[in-house]
Amino acid sequence: MSFSYYGPLCTEVYDHTKKVGQSFNGDIEYYYERLKHCKGRILEPMAGSGRVLIPLLERGLQVDGVDYSPEMLASCRQRCEERGLKATLLEADLQQLSLPQRYEAIIIPGGSFLLIEKREESLNVLRRLYEHLQPGGRLLLDLFLPDSANDGNQFGGTSTFHLPDGDIITMEGKLVEFDLFHQYKISYLKYEKWRNGVLLQTELQRLALRWYGVEEFKLVLESIGFTNVVISADFEYGKAPSSGNQKFVYEAVRKE
Fold first, then answer.
1. Helix or strand (DSSP H, E) at 44
2. What region does 86 belong to: left with phi over 0, alpha with psi -120 to 50, or beta?
3. pLDDT, tens only, 87-124
4. Distance in angstroms (rounded) separating the CA atoms of residues 242 and 205
5. Hey, what's the torsion of the CAs at 71, 74, 75, 76, to 10 degrees?
6. pLDDT of residue 1
7. 152: Cβ–Cβ under 8 A, 6 or more apart, which residues?
8. Can you give the C-alpha Rg of the chain in angstroms?
9. Phi (first) and psi of residue 214, to 5 degrees
10. pLDDT less than 70: residues of the chain
């Protein structure tokens, strides 16, 4: 699967910058509000290290997590154990996703769906998710557009992260490809972990993002078979999008 892989250093940075329960623009509150009446199970198929999954568990929802990265899942599992939470966490390629459970809702927060690089693979993932929903079940996910048509380079330059144990991770990002016509960009990220001035570890990541037009993605969902597609802006249900700088939240239903 063409997917931006999260290795050990990337996972450490992710954990440091996306803490459990850390809400971005009110996204956790939004997902909880839309899910709070669910009686059945919920699936987060790109769960990462549990930023959203864990607070939903803590509020009494039944959430299973899937991720492509064993490092991310290990972090999520540890965070659950620290809080005394039991969660079903599975490593899987979403293109081959085949779980015995059918879900009342499936969520993909944080724009993570954009990490599926190739268009046909992203469509296939949506088909697999559709099959894992109960009739009448809902898919909820949010997307965003690149920062600008000229560069869209949110990973440019060098960032420094000071970890709680005193170690330092630097991340250098370079935009290597930006294709406005085909709607994707590719950045190369280099992570270096330092301790008292000594380089301990280096990691390289190829990070690809594919984006979709607001109405385009609605048509994509409908082509898969979803109905009752609602697009909301900035985590306000029913608020019509009006700017390319907003987050776009989709809610769609599998046919009864």
1. strand 41-44
2. beta
3. 999 999 999 999 999 999 999 999 999 999 999 999 99
4. 34
5. 120
6. 37
7. 146, 175, 178, 185
8. 18
9. -60, -50
10. 1-5, 148-156
